[in-house]
Amino acid sequence: xxxxxxxxxxxxxxxxxxxxxxxxxxxxxxxxxxxxxxxxxxxxxxxxxxxxxxxxxxxxxxxxxxxxxxxxxxxxxxxxxxxxxxxxxxxxxxxxxxxxxxxxxxxxxxxxxxxxxxxxxxxxxxxxxxxxxxxxxxxxxxxxxxxxxxxxxxxxxxxxxxxxxxxxxxxxxxxxxxxxxxxxxxxxxxxxxxxxxxxxxxxxxxxxxxxxxxxxxxxxxxxxxxxxxxxxxxxxxxxxxxxxxxxxxxxxxxxxxxxxxxxxxxxxxxxxxxxxxxxxxxxxxxxxxxxxxxxxxxxxxxxxxxxxxxxxxxxxxxxxxxxxxxxxxxxxxxxxxxxxxxxxxxxxxxxxxxxxxxxxxxxxxxxxxxxxxxxxxxxxxxxxxxxxxxxxxxxxxxxxxxxxxxxxxxxxxxxxxxxxxxxxxxxxxxxxxxxxxxxxxxxxxxxxxxxxxxxxxxxxxxxxxxxxxxx
Length: 471
Fold this sequence. Notes:
Blueprint: H1 3-8, H2 10-27, H3 32-52, E1 58-60, E2 64-66, H4 68-95, H5 101-117, H6 122-140, H7 146-177, H8 191-209, H9 218-223, H10 227-250, H11 256-278, H12 283-307, H13 312-336, H14 343-346, H15 355-358, H16 360-374, H17 380-394, H18 398-421, H19 436-457, H20 460-470
Antiparallel strand pairs: 1-2
Helix pairs in contact: 2-3, 2-5, 3-4, 3-5, 4-5, 4-10, 4-13, 5-6, 5-10, 6-7, 6-10, 7-8, 8-10, 8-11, 10-12, 10-13, 11-12, 11-18, 12-13, 12-18, 13-16, 13-17, 13-19, 13-20, 16-18, 16-19, 17-19
């Protein structure tokens, strides 16, 4: 192995070393702050190494395959993880929870997600999906209560089903192509078996992405986990899993049957996700169900990218908008909540009535991110939806455009309900306990919210940068 290959493997090596150190701190019963510092420093170092690396293409026996696209995914993954670690540390302090093992499970989640993003081997995909499932079960179990144990068992069953479906899909792919590579150059002996394997693999991935028809688990899981942990489920894992589909569609050149199934799943997810969100008055349920429709939008972008590579910068812009807006919304909720009331576990909209009159800055930032997520003009979300509609119209797929426009209008309705609740005049008596972690989160959220507006007004700033970097 040459030096530059070893340098490109430094991020997983650093995180792997951090896992060992955190295990040692837990066994030696060191203070929680030690595990926290090891975790955040290791992920930050992995991010720096990934950014400064000048070798953008590498293939190590197809187990680790890095290119321009996967490098950008990796950078996004590590940035999300750093912010999430800060939030989880702050949540544990506010809730008086001592659970050092959570940092171990977070690091396992990061390294397994990194492997999912940077591999061309189906065996590593299976390993990564299994590790993420195990680590998430550990993250959920921060308390020994009947409710927590119940959702842990439920998620474990879902994970087992996901792995079994993924293994079956991998077996069918291998039997027809004699290759365990996502991007294979082997001759496919039986095209029907190969397509069946891809579709079964797609169904397994749908469980991780909570897409229709594998979406029913999100309600109970999302509703019963803390807000900072919700970010891992809704952003980190979905980003890593989406990368698998990205490589399958763009590099593996599947046939039309696979793409038809992908289109059906994406359209159903957009429709069902928006309809299920429409009558919700619980903020966690809104985040859960709206994520179904937004991942559906990303899949539509993936199909468009298959037919037209010029859509790649817009698709990445869609991904960035999804990550920033969801992470900002979760961060703002984290800043507001002090986790000292049982109501904060379920997050009813009534909890935020009149919040604008007490915290106008936070409420304004929340509204900006909601508007970008829904696709209102002068935001990045509007630019992305505009170009998506433009590309769909160029292929004369009018039925799809009509469905997406109706779904977008429905999305405006339930997002406006959140915005209107912040202006309902009530005696909002919650007082934010600011500390260093919350101030860092506030600064980050403010900068990212301004970025959504700047790029929404001048979209070429982002599109030109992405075009240079990934095309």
